[in-house]
Each structure stands twice: as C-alpha cells, then as structure tokens.
Amino acid sequence: MFETPEEVKQKEPKGFWIGIIVVVIIVMTGTMFYSKYKGAVPRTTTAAQSKGPADPVHDLKIQRATMNKDRSGTIENKSPAYSYGKIEYETNYVGADNSAILVNKGTLPVTIAPGEQHNSEINDALYPAGTSWYKIRIMGATPAAQ
C-alpha cells in the first residue's frame, strides 16, 4: 500500500557530452594558435638595423680546431644579420707548466654568411715541441650587413 516511490533519474543524452567535448577541443585549439601566432607581425626594418652593431668575437664560434699535421678547423657564424670576412684569429700554444710557448696571429681570407659554417685550413705554426695544449680564438673580423 505505502510503497517508497523510486527516484526518477533524468538521463542526459549522449549528444550533450559530445557537444561539450567538441567545444572544449575547439577552445583549446584556438588558444594554442593564438599564443603561437600572436607575435607574428611582419617587420619592416632590416635585420641588421634591429640587431645593433656587429660583434664578430661573439658571433663567430670555432666549432672544431685541430692543430696537428692537418691544422684544420670549422668556424660557424651565429649572426642572423651579418656576414664576416677577413677573420682574425690568435693561437696560443701552452706547455706543461702552463707557460706560453708560442702566440701566433693570422687572418683567414674567407667570408662566412649569416648562419653558415666554413671549414678551412688554418695556416699557423706547426704544433711546437713541448706543447701540452693549445687555444684558438677569434680576435676580430670585417662585418657586412645582409
């Protein structure tokens, strides 16, 4: 006679949940594209003007140098705006007691464009007797804006 009424559960259609998932995906995709491309405004100035003055000591990096019989090396130009030519270098040959045996300077008559690498033979003194280690570094170069 007195039965407990069963609660009627309201079922939401599957289309409702699919719609919510689609909206969430669209919002996430839109947010991703907005954050990725919000700063993509074309520049009207040249790269050389916006980057400031040339700095060959910072822009040119020696990737590999061997001062044995072949005396070769690889130099990379990390500048996005300048090419460099007449690259000046200095080599230091150091003995076991950390004293300099020979310090030599030279110039590479090459031009390296922005972002490029160049393999060249370094015309330097042949590895002096008593050398424990050596160091080669870029001293300067002639810049040209691209």
In short:
The protein has helices spanning 14-37, 47-51, 56-59, and strands spanning 60-66, 72-77, 82-94, 100-112, 117-121, 133-145. The protein has 146 residues and is of the alpha+beta class.
Entry keywords:
146 residues, alpha+beta, Immunoglobulin-like, three-stranded antiparallel sheet, 3 helices, 39% strand
What does it look like?
With 146 residues, the protein is an alpha+beta fold. The chain folds into two domains: 11-41; 47-145, Immunoglobulin-like (Sandwich). It has three helices and six strands; from the N terminus they run αααββββββ. The strands form two sheets. It has a three-stranded antiparallel β-sheet with strand order 1-2-5. A hairpin with a 5-residue loop joins strand 1 (60-66) and strand 2 (72-77). The chain starts with 13 loop residues before the first helix and ends with a strand.
